[in-house]
């Protein structure tokens, strides 16, 4: 059932079945965050939905609308698969699968929608398991998830007790994936908005925990990004940062010339000591590295839900410790710091 419709230039661009969850989420934000902040975020989010920058966004939303209206018997975000559970007819399951595959590629997951297993490129559950018990409890916390993707981690955060999770991601495909998932999860406590951190009002000091996972190396100015994260943190709150690193005990900053692991937009990789100093320079305290893990094909790989190139294509076929360009193969680390 279509609950929201906004026509711009005679074409529908704001079609998604969980309009009610969208409105309820902003009501929750009003109940928990400064009113002026929420108003600005709502205006910017509505503006993007009204005039999306990607020509396929209408098609993706139509795929969401084509999915049958089914009320799950239960939802479960506590396991590896964020899941909506119910016994449904095979024809309905096939229709859901076809619609979800129109939202290819799926980068984060896994999900289970009524028996449709979305095996995303990243087994994001592995990263979550590595950090979830090493960060401050999320119980009752208001969370900002920068670069949230399709909302997988936000659902896991809800299972960890978060009061609400505001996800930010300007990639409209990932927003469409979230809308498809949330058609059945129907959560008004986790929502992915089509915004980047630069679209968000600065220095809100409104959140108990701020996550930035897989974003820092895509930012031209790493310290500016960390200052921005710190500015959205209340006193006593915690930043959780996860990023690619250079695995060295020395102070090292590496700016790839050209691509890194076939990625165009990797600006700076740094050793843990440098990243920890950056966090301190952003005004944060109690900085700690809580995890360091090489990325392997058990965690990142091609699947039926992400059939493009993946990790194995990014590494030197003769030496998996190096990227195809001859750089150190991806190693990721997670850090915590408090305000």
UniProtKB/TrEMBL annotation:
User: What EC number(s) are associated with this protein in UniProt?
Assistant: 2.1.1.-
Q: Name one GO molecular function term.
A: methyltransferase activity
Name the enzyme group at the top EC level: transferase
Q: Name one Pfam family in it.
A: Methyltransf_9
**Mind telling me which CDD domains this protein's record contains?**
AdoMet_MTases
Keyword tRNA processing recorded: yes
Q: Which UniProt keywords apply?
A: Methyltransferase, Transferase, tRNA processing
The biological process GO terms on file are: methylation; tRNA wobble uridine modification
Q: What PANTHER family does this protein map onto?
A: TRANS-ACONITATE 2-METHYLTRANSFERASE-RELATED
Q: What is this protein called?
A: tRNA (Mo5U34)-methyltransferase
Q: Give the gene that encodes this protein.
A: cmoB
């Amino acid at each position: 059932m279509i609950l929201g419709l906004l026509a711009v230039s005679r074409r529908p661009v704001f079609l998604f079945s969980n309009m009610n969850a969208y409105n309820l989420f902003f009501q929750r934000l009003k109940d928990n965050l400064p009113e002026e902040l929420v108003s600005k975020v709502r205006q910017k989010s509505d503006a993007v939905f009204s005039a999306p920058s990607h020509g396929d966004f209408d098609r993706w939303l139509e795929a969401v609308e084509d999915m049958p209206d089914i009320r799950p018997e239960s939802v479960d975000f506590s396991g590896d698969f964020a899941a909506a559970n119910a016994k449904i007819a095979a024809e309905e399951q096939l229709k859901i699968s076809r619609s979800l595959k129109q939202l290819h590629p799926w980068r984060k997951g896994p999900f289970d929608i009524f028996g449709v297993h979305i095996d995303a490129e990243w087994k994001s559950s592995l990263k979550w398991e590595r950090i979830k018990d090493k960060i401050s409890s999320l119980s009752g916390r208001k969370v900002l998830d920068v670069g949230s993707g399709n909302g997988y981690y936000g659902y896991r955060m809800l299972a960890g007790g978060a009061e609400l999770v505001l996800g930010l991601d300007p990639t409209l495909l990932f927003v469409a994936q979230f809308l498809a998932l949330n058609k059945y999860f129907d959560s008004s406590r986790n929502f992915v908005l089509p915004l980047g951190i630069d679209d968000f009002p600065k220095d809100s000091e409104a959140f108990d925990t701020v996550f930035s996972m897989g974003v820092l190396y895509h930012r031209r100015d790493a310290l500016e990004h960390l200052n921005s994260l710190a500015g959205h943190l209340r006193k006593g709150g915690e930043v959780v940062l996860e990023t690619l690193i250079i695995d060295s005990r020395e102070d090292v900053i590496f700016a790839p010339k050209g691509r890194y692991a076939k990625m165009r937009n990797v600006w700076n990789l740094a050793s843990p000591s440098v990243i920890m100093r950056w966090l301190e320079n952003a005004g944060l305290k109690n900085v700690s590295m809580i995890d360091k893990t090489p990325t392997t094909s058990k965690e990142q790989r091609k699947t039926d839900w992400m059939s493009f190139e993946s990790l194995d294509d990014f590494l030197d076929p003769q030496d998996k410790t190096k990227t195809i360009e001859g750089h150190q193969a991806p190693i990721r680390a997670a850090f915590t710091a408090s305000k």
